[in-house]
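Weekly sync, protein design subgroup
Attendees: M.S., D.O., the rotation student, P.L. (late)

Item 1: inverse folding check
M.S. brought a backbone from last month's batch and wanted to see whether the design step gives back something sensible before we order anything. D.O. pointed out we never logged the input encoding, so this time it goes straight into the notes. Structure tokens as presented (341 positions):
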């Protein structure tokens, strides 16, 4: 038994894993040696897969993948894997219907997240609602995908659902934005009893004081419930003279009031360093979208998009990452307050 525990989450004995190298550079997060796990042209008609999310499913793994078609338009594709590393993709994009079973396809869809709450899986993405906004759909069997009406007004991105209800309500992060390449952005949460009506909007955290996240931040992987609070891997963006640089950050939020940040790591956990992160369609991007974690060992596998071109995999361990975030935590009042004004 480790120092800290992952709560309300199953053991995933077959999760992808590789032990830490003998020496770690800075944060206790290490890349899979065979990265990237998904390369270019993974499917006919799809040039790149990146910014994608996966979950354990029926003893194996299933995921929703941002596939950039050869006409440049992103859609979501379903993928299956036995080991979480080698993936087979459906050739057709996911077909969404409305609650009456009629076609309800988004105009485009990117940066999908995939979260299980109770017995249902939810896909959340960014799509067009007369401008960039959030889309959401549910499935139980990964055969029928039923879209809800759009939860939020434009412009918004980076919605991430929590893996359980809090005080009886669904809880979702989002990042209000503009419809372009948004040069600002803080993370907020909203609550809903039914995934249709959303309210109780609260501010969680602002762009950071530190340079690596000083332009904007946004949700990343679905938060992991732990004995110290909700463990969050998010993205932080630096605006350099030569464009945006996306890094992975870490924070721990209060279990019952997740708009309160308990710990926020002042240093990044992962920043573009490898060729597949520095070189691609959009250089210098590490964009976290999902974790697979094992409640027995505390092992965590982090899936991240690399340079808008590839999927990368990195690993950490619960005790290591929580201690690191706590040891390097700097919070200010916009982090720790309840987030209502
Ligand atoms: C953001 C989103 C992400 C992308 C990132 C870097 O605005 O579009 O999908 O990874 O930019 O291009």
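Designed sequence read out in the meeting:
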């Amino acid at each position: 038994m480790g120092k800290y525990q992952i709560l309300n989450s199953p053991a995933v004995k077959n999760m992808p894993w590789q032990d830490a190298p003998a020496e770690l550079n800075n944060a206790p997060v290490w890349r899979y040696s065979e990265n990237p796990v998904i390369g270019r042209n993974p499917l006919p008609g799809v040039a790149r897969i990146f910014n994608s999310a996966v979950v354990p499913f029926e003893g194996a793994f299933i995921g929703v993948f941002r596939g950039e078609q050869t006409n440049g338009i992103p859609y979501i594709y379903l993928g299956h894997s036995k080991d979480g590393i080698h993936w087979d993709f459906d050739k057709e994009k996911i077909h969404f219907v409305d609650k009456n079973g009629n076609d309800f396809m988004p105009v485009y869809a990117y940066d999908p997240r995939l979260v299980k709450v109770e017995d249902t899986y939810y896909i959340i993405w960014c799509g067009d609602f007369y401008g960039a906004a959030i889309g959401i759909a549910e499935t139980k069997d990964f055969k029928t995908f039923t879209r809800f009406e759009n939860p939020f007004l434009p412009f918004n991105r980076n919605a991430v659902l929590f893996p359980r209800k809090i005080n009886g309500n669904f809880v979702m992060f989002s990042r209000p934005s503009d419809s372009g390449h948004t040069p600002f952005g803080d993370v907020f949460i909203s609550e809903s009893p039914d995934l249709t009506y959303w309210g109780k909007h609260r501010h969680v955290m602002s762009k950071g004081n530190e340079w690596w996240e000083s332009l904007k931040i946004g949700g990343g992987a679905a938060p992991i419930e732990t004995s110290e609070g909700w463990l969050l891997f998010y993205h932080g963006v630096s605006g350099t003279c030569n464009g945006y640089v996306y890094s992975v950050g870490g924070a721990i939020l209060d279990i019952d009031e997740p708009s309160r940040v308990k710990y926020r790591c002042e240093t990044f956990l992962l920043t573009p360093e490898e060729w597949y992160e520095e070189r691609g369609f959009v250089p210098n991007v590490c964009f976290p979208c999902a974790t697979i974690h094992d409640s027995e060992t505390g092992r965590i596998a982090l899936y991240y998009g690399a340079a808008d071109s590839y999927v990368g995999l990195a690993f950490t361990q619960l005790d290591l990452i929580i201690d690191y975030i706590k040891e390097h935590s700097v919070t200010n009042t916009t982090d720790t307050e309840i987030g209502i004004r």
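Discussion: DSSP finds three helices and 22 strands in the chain. The first helix runs from residue 275 to 278.
Action: P.L. to compare against the previous round before Friday.
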